[in-house]
Amino acid sequence: MDIEDSYSKYNKNYNEIEKSVFKEDEWVKIINYTKTQTDLEIILLPIDMKALEFCLKNEESIDSIEVHSINFTNILFLREVKKFSKSIILGVGGRTLEEIMFVYNFLQKQNLIFIYGFQSFPTNYYELNMSRINKLRAIFNVEIGYADHTSFEDHMRYNLIEYAYLNGSRIFEMHVVIDEGEKRIDYNSAINSKTFLKIRERLERLIRIQGYEIYYTLNDSEEEYKNREKKIVAKRDIDRDDVFSEDNIWLKVSDEKSDFEQIMYKRIIGKIARHKIKQDKTINFSDIN
Predict the structure, then answer these.
(1) pTM across the whole model
(2) What pLDDT shows up at residue 226?
(3) Range of the domain at 140
(4) Is 22:3 a contact under the CB 8 Å cutoff?
(5) 67, 136, 206, 253: which has the highest count of C-beta atoms within 10 A?
(6) CA-closest candidate to residue 107, choices 55, 142, 144
């Protein structure tokens, strides 16, 4: 919003950035239009103090703000960020653990989201260290996303996003443009809507493969597979009032239904037979006194 606050005239992108700066009333129109046209959340990334003041003044219309890496440890900026009551996103890529801990403790917020990943062209996959995503989650107990900056021409992007998901990321940041490959600021890693939808499709497939459940329960196919296990059956003919023992019951593959699983074998030992049971018949509750 105020280019003079953040960029020197000697910055190579100064003139291009200046052309793209919107006025405050224009931002209000953009936000209002977006809210009436879509169900998407609005996340703003203020870089200068005036932009941050705008975010605080219009907090009711904004869902989250993100602290840009150029302000990561800027205490003057962070002091104002603390006033924002909704979600605050921190880009933690390319930051030391000490720096992250400093900002985490300085903000003292419950609604922090970390975004892991940083801009480097071309992206060196072997420097991503995605295992840090899980480590950061364990240390800070916050939601952690992944910011992808792979070249728009590199199909490895699909895999990297899936790897990030498997490491615990559930939020993904990507640059989106209308015309993929058209030269402009940050075009190198920007994707179009077609690529975006393909990424989403692949993620949805991965999520289905991974499963949603918190508790470990078997699905119908797994239950059917499990039921192939040997069942507890009569080793020989058993008479009424006989005591079940390892001499007269054991395990065999059978198509008959059984109330007992293999793991319950010891529970039957010592019980009394209610009636006569033929050899190879499965043992059920109705067979036991």
Answers:
(1) 0.74
(2) 83
(3) 3-210
(4) no
(5) 67
(6) 142
